[in-house]
């Protein structure tokens, strides 16, 4: 594409980076000697270790808009790229629910040591470990160093009922409920007590991850995090989505359709719990020929999107206000990279547009010119197979946080074992045990109209 056309569309622009009024200082390793470090601001660390955040993002010439970038997430064929094999474990939670943990790489890996970083991933709305946006990071992150990878471990936390995980209670998941990731981290931390845990969240999973980090502060079990396409202010973005034809008829209906399909796959569970309020609402949703995201949240998520209290909420608006994460950015206490695109058709209201002064010292907030929702496709080696731009800055961030930066000291609560359950000191309502080994899982595309979101 000519430089003139790129200028007209405004496509050749460096991501805009936002920091809080004060920026945290960290120690950066200069050599392998433990005491050989230098003090740098997080801004300086990003300049030195994440050069991709200071380079232009050039969308593929045939995907110049946010709509096209987002739609390609849905219609693109990613089945032959970034294949990842997982080993699944199903965790039973104290309330009887089930969480699916997918571990990679499988088998004996000589290059992996006890202190090798572990990437902990939270997927999007109805996704899972199979999603192409997840595999785009984990394939290179978990490849051996001699193959050009980071050589890390990874665990994808699949929400209740997603990606083949059974739904064993009438409770689902939501953008605001954090106890399931909190529970999963108990098990992951018990498996890898000497390894730093690095979080990655996509879309809805990004919102959950942000809220978890803000709630835990310096007690977080995650040492650093990176999130992409977070929906932030759920109420404001829901209203924006409903204000346009594309938002109502394509994105909202598509996401509602995915959620309805998830509900249908687990209808037997709701029939087995007729006393649950949500079970009474399920037939109403399944009888509708189509349903928008807001309608689903107002009928199902506000009732069963988490434990009681605070669920159920009076309306979806009340749930959105409670579950939003934009107000949580001031409370994050670990290095935290957030990436959004300025033409994301699903997330149009960003906190850095409204209240940039409320970013904590640990936040690096990047906004790209273009990229859509979880797209960021740039031209690859072949026109038919574009590559995701965000792979570069995310891998640079993971390497910096996993190897180069002396991560801030945290004080997570001690783990304890009680009658075969792994629990946290001071809480009897949070705990897990291995329910079963789920066998091998190979990352392939999911199902639904808007898979990939």
UniProtKB/TrEMBL annotation:
The active site is at residues 203, 344, 373. Residues 117-378 form the AB hydrolase-1 domain. It comes from the Eukaryota. One of its GO terms (biological process) is medium-chain fatty acid biosynthetic process. The keyword Transcription does not apply. Keywords: Hydrolase. Coiled coil: none annotated. Pfam families: Abhydrolase_1. GO terms for molecular function: acetylesterase activity; monoacylglycerol lipase activity. The keyword Hydrolase applies. Signal peptide: none annotated. Belongs to the AB hydrolase superfamily. AB hydrolase 4 family. PANTHER family: ABHYDROLASE DOMAIN-CONTAINING PROTEIN, ALPHA_BETA HYDROLASE 1, ISOFORM A. This is Alpha/beta hydrolase. It comes from Phanerochaete sordida.
